[in-house]
Every structure is written in C-alpha cells, then in structure tokens.
Design goal:
59% of the residues lie in helices and 0% in strands. The chain is mainly α.
C-alpha cells in the first residue's frame, strides 16, 4: 500500500460522512498516474501554489490602488487569509482540508491588475466579457504551463468557478470557501480602511458590531464559530440568520463607505484608461505580447480578443504600469 493509499484510507476512516473523499473525486480532464505520496486534492493544492499565476497575486491590488504602506492587503495576502479561514472551518467539521485549501488558493487566480476596477473595464471592452472567477478556471485549464494547464480535479475547478456566482459549489468544501472569501475580505478591508483613515471603528454601525464584535479579531471569531456550530454533522454549510444578516449588513456598509469611497477609488479611472490603452495596442500589435500568448493566437483556436484579454488580465499592477510607460511616455520624460 502506497503512502497515498494510506492517506486515502485515513480520510475514509476519520473524515465526516459528508466530506469529499479524495478517492471519490470525479477526476481530471486528462487521465494521469496518481502520485504515490499525495492524494489528488493535495496534489492540486501544490500545483496551484507553484504556478506563475499564483506568484503574480502578490503584486495585484486587493482594494487600494498603489497604497503607500507595507501592511495593506494584496490579492495574495487575501488568498492566504481565505485559505486559513477555510482550513479552520473544514478541519473543525472533519471535511477535506486539502480540497478546501486548493479551492481557496485558486479562487482568485483570474483577477486583473487594479482589482475589481480592472475586471470591470475588461468586461466592458472585451466582446466576450470578463469575470474573474471564470478566468481563474481558464487559467488552470488552458493558460498555465504554455497552454497545457494544471489539469486539476473537477471538484477544485467547481469550487473556484462558483465561489462568487449565483450558483453554489457542489461540495461542502467549496461552500466553505465561498463564505470564507466574504468573511476574509469584509474584515481585512475594514482593517485596511481604518489604516487608510477612510473610516474609524467607532463609525461602523453598532447594529452590526454589537452582534459580530468591535474588532476584526472578534468578528472573525464570531463568524467562524457560527458556521462551525450550525454546520456540525450536517450535510450543508449554515450560518445562523441573525449572524448572516449582520454580515450582509456590514458588507453593504463597506460598499457604501469604502468600496465606492472617493479617497479609496481616486485613481481607478486612470487605471481603467491604462488598461484600455493596452488592450487597443495589443489588438493592433499582438506580436508584442509574450511568446506563449503569440503562440495561442497563431494556433487559431481562439479569437484574438480573448487572448489579448488573457494577457492583460494576467499582468501585475506594476507590469501594466511599466508597459504603459514604455508604450506611451517618452523616455526623456520619465522620472527615475
């Protein structure tokens, strides 16, 4: 019996009857020899962790564009916080921690430079539209490894695709990450907004903080405990109505006071104009993209508009800015 088989047997013996067992996975699009050490979801987690698109998340905006400070969240730190919340819940419920972590690490791979503002402008200018959750799946199925993709299991891709859609993930682990994503960004965005002097803790309506807590630590503790308590030994993931309603209300407060705040979003239009310029340029000069994307176009399998959108969406904030400067600003005018 291999180490992997022993671990699969451990899952069957010790995890909840509602857990997604590795041995019961629907599998991969392309059949592979199983690893002799790692079950399939652990293997998927490792593939995502070692991918180029995952590494680029460290230089992609979460909420604040180009913040001056080392402690604001990026898309990568958001992803790690989601993974940690998801693992805590999955472990407490005896669900598959590897599957939850893999979904969490992959759920935002498709995010553009400049956060949701970048996503919005690409959705407008690309005739095929753009949604970051769909792009996350496209990356692992099509774009990574020069077109070979990561060949992840069906369950991981299902959780990535449905983490923020009207559809629910098919596994309890995917449902955990769907909630963990909201819990993470609501709380760390409050933390960053306070750091950026956009709001203060005392301004947050007491009808939410009296229920959830008066600090990020307290709110995280309340939300995570609530999910664990109400989902334990049940074949679904639940929150109590009053806690869920308070979280929804707090999220609405953040949209009204932070996500649309003029100070927080003052540079968004510039960032969107930058991406529009890059899109127009690469539509006219697709040969100037990285070689793998030029090869995608040369294969004639997909339209140029889709590939140009793939290329731009994969850029980090810094690479998009530097590329724009190289294309549009004379060298003698640049500040070094």
């Amino acid at each position: 019996m291999t180490i992997r088989e022993r671990m699969e047997q451990y899952e069957a013996d010790h995890l909840s009857p509602y857990a997604s067992l590795s041995i019961n996975s629907r599998g991969r699009d392309k059949a592979e020899e199983p690893c002799d050490v790692r079950p399939c979801y652990q293997r998927d987690r490792d593939r995502i962790l070692h991918s180029k698109s995952f590494r680029r998340l460290k230089h992609k905006t979460q909420v604040f564009l180009a913040p001056t400070g080392d402690h604001y969240r990026t898309r990568l730190t958001h992803t790690l916080e989601v993974a940690q919340i998801g693992r805590t819940i999955a472990r407490a419920l005896r669900l598959n921690e590897d599957l939850a972590e893999a979904i969490a690490l992959g759920h935002d791979l498709g995010h553009t430079p400049f956060g949701h503002s970048g996503e919005a402008v690409l959705n407008q200018i690309c005739p095929y539209g753009f949604k970051h959750y769909e792009q996350s799946v496209r990356i692992v199925e099509r774009l990574e490894k020069n077109g070979r993709g990561l060949n992840l299991t069906w369950e991981v891709r299902d959780g990535m695709r449905n983490h923020s859609t009207v559809n629910m993930p098919s596994t309890l682990e995917g449902k955990i990450i769907r909630l963990s994503d909201k819990i993470a960004y609501i709380n760390h965005d409050i933390d960053d907004a306070i750091r950026g002097h956009i709001i203060v803790e005392e301004e947050i309506p007491s009808c939410y903080t009296d229920i959830l807590g008066h600090s990020s630590k307290q709110r995280l503790n309340t939300l995570i405990h609530d999910i664990i308590i109400h989902s334990f030994e049940r074949n679904d993931i639940f929150m109590s109505p009053h806690i869920e309603n308070a979280m929804i209300g707090l999220r609405k407060y953040m949209f009204a006071n932070v996500y649309t705040n003029k100070k927080a979003k003052s540079e968004e239009k510039k960032a969107q104009n930058l991406l529009e310029v890059l899109y127009e340029y690469y539509m006219k000069h697709p040969e100037k993209m990285s070689p793998e994307y030029v090869n995608f176009i040369s294969s004639d399998e997909e339209p140029k508009e889709r590939i140009v959108c793939d290329y731009i969406s994969g850029m980090t904030d810094q690479f998009a800015i530097s590329t724009y400067e190289d294309l549009c600003i004379p060298s003698s005018w640049k500040v070094y």
